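Morning F.,

Quick status update on the modeling queue. The single chain you submitted on Monday has been processed. Sequence for confirmation:
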Amino acid sequence: MSRYQVDKFLRDINHDRALAERWRAESGEVLSRYDLTSDEREALATWHVRKLYEMGANPLLLLLSAFASGKGMREYMSAMNLKE
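Structure tokens below.
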């Protein structure tokens, strides 16, 4: 896993609202700017946070990405398979 690139992407969408909006509208175009593996691209495009977590992505950035992706805490917890 190119953890740096995944974490960089997560940081970027958390700091740049316009980039987060473009990612939600056209994930492939935005993700093509990062040196990611096909598994990473797929997990980010589908917002599969549990898989990203298991691959070593920064947990705080994953949590913050829930809001950048237009999701809420419940959706994040569900995606991570956490109990409320």
